[in-house]
Design goal:
This protein is of the alpha/beta class and 302 residues long. The protein is built from 14 helices and 7 strands.
């Protein structure tokens, strides 16, 4: 087991949000260091089951030795496929802690952080073929602009893209250090680290197709969660949180309000359990700064 792999965010609130039945079947979409999974297992009886997903081999060593626990070593976008394979037609709850674990940021060879010099990689699993270096070196000006604008909300991203295009014509990008040095030349003086974080975040989201994967799995929720079951999602990016919020409210990622039938009834698969997103308190943020941007939403299947 990798020690201090990841400190789980909003641990008690998220697991409580599942409203766990001792003999129920639950899913942890993002196993990582296993913090949320272990807490879920504490609430399950001998006949309860927990299915967890993680495509990253670094996380597999964290799996608990528990007959009630099943680890699927694949991307969670294949949730319904594996539930069918395991014989679970529907489950009682699904929890997803989106984003990247602390372990990823602290591993220089993975290329997720600008704090270390390493390969410009950012792939979360072996099935992903395109690296961050491939994107920076090969994507068109228009596509790079779109990625940095949409996924990173990078200010003055046009300047960044033009600098990348000019630099890659001389020397292709291979390391995080190379990209960091280039990005610093166009970063605002007061917010250099924030700017770098936005640049790296945008590339990570594109490399791992995080928005597409999230959309894929959330669209499966009405089919896989039983009536009365819970969906609990912790998001760290405004786009992710907006997608989840819209889906809960309207059943559609692009709409904030649900359509109604002829009688004025809202046609939605879930109802929100929390009116607003739940955020970490000051004490948790102090102990775990990553919790600062976390937004937790809980919904119940109708």
């Amino acid at each position: 087991m990798i020690t201090e792999y990841h400190i789980p965010v909003l641990l008690k609130t998220s697991v409580d949000g599942l409203n766990i039945k001792p003999d129920g079947v639950y899913v942890d979409l993002t196993f990582g260091g296993g913090g949320h999974s272990r807490e879920i297992l504490k609430h399950l009886g001998p006949h309860g089951r927990l299915v967890a997903f993680d495509q990253d081999a670094d996380a597999w060593g964290n799996a608990p030795e528990d007959d009630r626990f099943i680890l699927i070593k694949h991307n969670f976008r294949y949730l319904q496929h594996f539930l069918d394979y395991l014989g679970f037609e529907k489950v009682d709850g699904v929890l997803g802690d989106l984003g990247v674990s602390s372990h990823h940021f602290d591993s220089p060879e993975r290329g997720f952080s600008f704090r270390f010099d390493g390969a410009l990689d950012m792939r979360m699993g072996p099935g992903i073929k395109v690296t961050a270096a491939d994107i920076v070196n090969r994507y068109s000006e228009e596509k790079l602009f779109s990625i940095f604008k949409l996924y990173g909300e990078v200010p003055s991203c046009g300047k960044l893209v033009r600098a990348i295009l000019n630099a890659r014509n001389q020397t292709p990008f291979k390391t995080t250090g190379h990209l960091k040095d280039l990005a610093q030349t166009v970063a605002p003086r007061k917010d250099v680290n924030k700017f770098l974080a936005q640049v790296f975040q945008a590339l990570r989201i594109e490399v791992n197709k995080e928005m597409e994967v999230l959309e894929d799995v959330v669209m499966q929720m009405p089919k896989v969660i039983k009536p009365g079951g819970r969906l609990v999602v912790i998001a760290y990016h405004s786009l992710e949180d907006r997608m989840v919020k819209n889906f809960i409210r309207s059943g559609d990622f692009s709409k904030s309000q649900a359509e109604t039938d002829l009688y004025g009834h809202r046609e939605v698969p879930f109802k929100a359990v929390t009116r607003k997103a739940v955020q970490a308190g000051d004490e948790e943020v102090k102990e775990n700064p990553r919790a600062r941007s976390a937004k937790l939403r809980i919904a119940e299947k109708l």
